[in-house]
């Protein structure tokens, strides 16, 4: 029996891709796609040629997070063409193939694996410095499939995104163990949503009245500060939203021997950028999360 012709085609396709990075998470909703999208934006802003492949077949959020909703994939004689945000940032997702964004994709394993193979062998990326793969949460068919398909061409490693709570960290340990079993290096863990951080001027200040109602006193509070302590208006207020008394991702990394890449705070401006499909690095609006994300990208 000769070599699998699909794998041969994948190896040929991937020959023009220098680095392949998987973005993983144990749970959904921890910010994996947000991180993948912003990582792609950051690498593209550094003038790398970047591809972003979304294999979260049941919940593809990458088209929206890159401002590409409603776009379709075109076929050329070289293969499927990614949808381009900029000339050096191409995106491929099943989201581009669904006639209606609300359509549910209810597929069993083999069909999902088939699509992943097709993405890898039929998409014409051209020369890429980085291919960032946004995987679904957990360790399921799609993960085994992508690793098997890319094994022969080499994967640089995985980045695991988590929140600080134990419930998420327990699943990260599973993700680390999966990577070890299948021989994928863990480049590191990102702790996302590590506290809510906002410029003090973005807060709403409330006062409890005697009858238990809340009164908005923002104007008064900010005017007071402006007059009495203007330097306080430059402060960024942070509060821990999730319980990290267990030491968070840093401690877990220490215990499992994988690198800790850093923390990204919960930043309403980052959420807005993601909703609007914008890079958080493009303007100064994501003042608290963009520097944190940039530091992480520079560590890779
Ligand atoms: P996942 O891919 O892990 O399911 P998403 O990336 O879709 O998670 O994130 C879930 C939601 O949380 C999205 O609305 C996203 O914009 C928001 N989000 C993620 N990270 C942050 C953050 N650091 N600050 C604010 N909102 C965030």
UniProtKB/TrEMBL annotation:
An example Gene Ontology CC term for this record: cytosol
GO terms for biological process, alphabetical: iron-sulfur cluster assembly
Instruction: Please share the entry's free-text remark on the cofactor.
Output: Binds 3 [4Fe-4S] clusters per homodimer. Contains two stable clusters in the N-termini and one labile, bridging cluster between subunits of the homodimer.
Where does this protein chiefly localize?
A: cytoplasm
As one GO molecular function, the record gives: 4 iron, 4 sulfur cluster binding
Tell me its cofactors: [4Fe-4S] cluster
Among its keywords, does the record have RNA-binding? no
| Positions of ATP binding | 26-33
Which keywords does this chain's UniProt record carry? 4Fe-4S, ATP-binding, Cytoplasm, Iron, Iron-sulfur, Metal-binding, Nucleotide-binding
Q: Where found in the cell? A: Cytoplasm
Report the protein's function: Component of the cytosolic iron-sulfur (Fe-S) protein assembly (CIA) machinery. Required for maturation of extramitochondrial Fe-S proteins. Functions as Fe-S scaffold, mediating the de novo assembly of an Fe-S cluster and its transfer to target apoproteins. Essential for embryo development.
**Record-stated family:** Belongs to the Mrp/NBP35 ATP-binding proteins family. NUBP1/NBP35 subfamily.
Other information: Although plant and algal NBP35 proteins lack the characteristic CXXC motif in the C-terminus, thought to be required for Fe-S cluster binding, they can bind a [4Fe-4S] cluster in the C-terminus. Also, in this linage, no CFD1 partner protein homolog as found in other eukaryotes can be found.
Tell me, how does this one assemble?
Answer: Homodimer and homotetramer. Predominantly homodimeric.
Protein's name according to its UniProt entry: Cytosolic Fe-S cluster assembly factor NBP35
Q: What is the protein's species of origin?
A: Acacia crassicarpa (northern wattle)
The record lists the lineage as: Eukaryota, Viridiplantae, Streptophyta, Embryophyta, Tracheophyta
According to the record, which residues of the full protein are present here? Answer: 42 to 341 of 355
